Amino acid sequence: MAVLHAVAEEPCSLSTLCERTGLPRATAHRLAVGLEVHRLLARDTKGQWVPGAALAELAATAGDTLIDAASFVLPRLREITGESVQIYRREGIERVCVAAMEPPTGLRDTVLVGARLPMTAGSGAKVLLAWADITTQRAVLPEAQFTERVLIEVRRRGWAQSIAERESGVASVAAPIRDATGTVIAAISVSGPIDRMGRKPGARWAADLLAAADAIQKRL
């Protein structure tokens, strides 16, 4: 792994590989040649080691454990609420929808998988920002439709709600999804028309969202 990480930084000669890994010359050479045989490393036109094609092939078969876990939970949450359900990950100062399901009929809040939304509005944004680093919070809060005090309240009660923040006529509730270490890695959300969700959607759906988030965490 040390050799792979060293080569991933930039192409490596044997001398550079020894410097980066701290390995003896003979050991570094033996490991690099072995990885090259299995196509995990290759050589460029200058004879330096570079990442091999087999790394990309392996990566292409890797599943997304969050989405896999969510696929068992989102259908039931949609059935319970009768509304659209989504999962968001934070990327910088944006949030990205990585999974979504909609009710089969009726007016719905459609968020396409892959959609990039701002972190300045919406319950999912509040959840992701509440557990984000201070630098990210300071970058987003000046433009946000909520305050730092709201984020403190989100962390205290464990969920967030929004009424017509991201889009007029839409309400939503969101809760954090944690990994095995307890780190918040995503937000799970239910959204729909205010006429159905009500002006206090958290009172109605927060408990179900927290249960769904817990179910995903257990599967992770």
TrEMBL record:
<dbReference type="InterPro" id="IPR050707">
    <property type="entry name" value="HTH_MetabolicPath_Reg"/>
</dbReference>
<dbReference type="InterPro" id="IPR014757">
    <property type="entry name" value="Tscrpt_reg_IclR_C"/>
</dbReference>
<dbReference type="Pfam" id="PF09339">
    <property type="entry name" value="HTH_IclR"/>
</dbReference>
<dbReference type="GO" id="GO:0045892">
    <property type="term" value="P:negative regulation of DNA-templated transcription"/>
</dbReference>
<protein>
    <submittedName>
        <fullName>IclR family transcriptional regulator</fullName>
    </submittedName>
</protein>
<dbReference type="Pfam" id="PF01614">
    <property type="entry name" value="IclR_C"/>
</dbReference>
<dbReference type="InterPro" id="IPR029016">
    <property type="entry name" value="GAF-like_dom_sf"/>
</dbReference>
<keyword id="KW-0804">Transcription</keyword>
<keyword id="KW-0805">Transcription regulation</keyword>
<feature type="domain" description="IclR-ED">
    <location>
        <begin position="54"/>
        <end position="220"/>
    </location>
</feature>
<keyword id="KW-0238">DNA-binding</keyword>
<dbReference type="GO" id="GO:0003677">
    <property type="term" value="F:DNA binding"/>
</dbReference>
<dbReference type="InterPro" id="IPR005471">
    <property type="entry name" value="Tscrpt_reg_IclR_N"/>
</dbReference>
<dbReference type="InterPro" id="IPR036390">
    <property type="entry name" value="WH_DNA-bd_sf"/>
</dbReference>
<dbReference type="GO" id="GO:0003700">
    <property type="term" value="F:DNA-binding transcription factor activity"/>
</dbReference>
<feature type="domain" description="HTH iclR-type">
    <location>
        <begin position="1"/>
        <end position="53"/>
    </location>
</feature>
<dbReference type="InterPro" id="IPR036388">
    <property type="entry name" value="WH-like_DNA-bd_sf"/>
</dbReference>
